[in-house]
Design brief:
Blueprint lengths: L8 H30 L4 H38 L2 H37 L3 H33 L4 H23 L9 H25 L15 H32 L4 H37 L3 H28 L1 H5 L6 H14 L3 H17 L3 H22 L6 H30 L19
Helix pairs in contact: 1-5, 1-8, 2-3, 2-4, 2-7, 2-8, 3-4, 3-7, 4-6, 5-6, 7-13, 8-9, 8-11, 8-12, 9-12, 11-14, 12-14, 13-14
Length: 461
């Protein structure tokens, strides 16, 4: 366990962020490698896998419920020096992760094809997406337990073990991708099914590795079967913090679904180009997101310890670092967007859509970095309802105009990107206002007889 209530906040962020970003980038690279080999199967396969991958946002919503709830409550407990509560939250989160994983498998088996029919019209795209989802569902189900274990470690200030496990799992996935997708060395190409199977095998190995780490090396929180009996009060604590954050990811799923809906009249190449562009954009967002994720546990531990001034300082330092990072990547994307997209498709129309998307939407990067940091601070404070509110506003102000425009004569694909820029900027401003209001409610000036560094209220939950 690392005490984040003392020492330099910038130092804590800079130590924690690199392992986080390495872990996230390796996962994103894995997805891009899948797309690279799937691209050889044609535009319908790329569009199907990309559209199916959007369903991952919905499953990520459930993962965020557990991950955010675990990080916030365990970090608060660490700040209070309450190891017993930290372990209870962790073990109850483990129970919930198993239940969520089983639920994901059941729903995926039933709804994969209906989902693909709702976002695509081309039969080949629907078939490719459905096949990929069915083989990818075990990976999504296993991600729940990985999310809980990784969140518990991050709440205690430990991030490297999760990064190393993710990196090894991704290397395995990358090694399996050409073998299972294209049939390298075996002569038995499984196509899009191989992409899903490679991910599922790699995630299973990752679960086993992280479980071994907890059993052998982790000392602050750990598996305790005596605490696995369902305790509804603890579930309520976790869900109270996690559900709004999960709702935000569900809204991202809906937002992506709206884009796929309005793009479907432009054909599979447009959907494929959007899928490639979003993954590359996600890759260049990773460093700023890692800074924000590092700030969450720092804010959480200090809030639990009553150090309100350090909570505010954490926000200022994190948003400053994130803004600098996003400016650098904005300039890179504006200068040579095509350079970031080379090799993902040989189809000119697909790459033109991907390049146009990256050129326009990269102008969102600074605003998106502010949103990342605000969201992480809300998680550290243990109140994620404002996160959900800002996401609802963004979805409503985006979906209604873009669907209306898509039915008008002269509708162009650029209109989709312009609206994205406007609504992301709106969400960033709203998030800043909501965070300022949250600070004024939860962090109070210290009494005259209290040391200046101890400023704050007792954490909720």
């Amino acid at each position: 366990m690392k005490d984040l209530t003392r020492g330099s906040i910038v130092s804590h962020i800079l130590v924690m962020a690199p392992p986080i970003v390495v872990g996230m980038i390796t996962i994103m690279i894995c997805q891009l490698v899948d797309l690279y080999f799937v691209a050889g199967l044609g535009d319908a396969a790329v569009a199907g896998v990309a559209a199916a991958g959007n369903a991952g946002f919905l499953v990520n919503a459930l993962m965020q419920v557990l991950g955010v709830g675990s990080v916030a409550l365990i970090a608060h407990a660490v700040g209070r020096k309450d190891r017993g509560d930290a372990n209870l939250v962790f073990n109850q989160s483990v129970v919930l992760s198993v239940l969520c994983g089983l639920f994901t498998l059941a729903v995926g088996a039933l709804l994969s094809r209906p989902y693909m029919r709702s976002v695509a019209t081309d039969p080949a795209t629907i078939e490719a997406g459905t096949t990929y989802l069915l083989w990818f569902m075990p990976a999504l189900a296993l991600q729940f337990i990985i999310q809980v274990m990784g969140s518990a470690l991050r709440a205690t200030g430990i991030v490297r073990p999760s990064m190393l496990v993710q990196a090894v799992a991704v290397i395995i996935n990358i090694a399996l991708a050409p073998v299972l997708i294209a049939g390298w060395g075996t002569g038995h190409a499984l196509g899009v099914a191989g992409a899903g199977l490679a991910s599922s095998i790699a995630v299973l190995i990752g679960v086993l590795m992280l479980f071994a780490y907890f059993r052998k090396l982790e000392r602050y929180v750990g598996f305790d079967p005596a605490q696995w009996r369902p305790r509804l009060r603890q579930w309520a604590r976790i869900l109270n913090v996690g559900l709004p954050a999960g709702g935000e990811f569900a809204l991202i799923f809906a937002w992506m679904g709206v884009i796929y809906y309005v793009l479907r009249d432009f054909g599979p190449a447009a959907q494929a180009g959007f899928g490639i562009g979003t993954r590359v954009l996600g890759l260049i967002q990773m460093p700023a997101l890692a800074v924000a994720l590092a700030a969450g546990p720092i804010a959480g531990q200090n809030y639990g310890a009553g150090n309100g001034r350090r909570v505010q300082e954490t926000f200022v330092k994190a948003v400053s670092i994130g803004t600098v990072v996003m400016i650098v990547f904005t300039l890179a994307a504006q200068w040579k967007p095509g350079l970031l997209l080379d090799g993902f498709s040989n189809d000119r129309e697909t790459m033109a859509v991907a390049g146009g998307f990256l050129h326009f939407v990269s102008m969102n990067l600074v605003a998106q970095g502010v949103i990342f940091t605000c969201n992480s601070m809300f998680q550290g404070l243990g109140n994620t309802r404002p996160v959900l509110l800002s996401s609802v506003v963004r979805l409503f102000t985006y979906a209604v105009p873009v669907i209306w425009l898509s039915r008008q004569p002269g509708f162009r694909i650029e209109h989709v990107w312009y609206l994205s820029i406007a609504t992301t900027t709106l969400q960033a401003g709203l998030s800043l206002w909501l965070l300022r209001r949250e600070f004024s409610k939860r962090l109070v000036p210290p009494p005259r007889d209290v040391a200046p560094e101890r400023v704050g209220l007792e954490p909720v939950g």
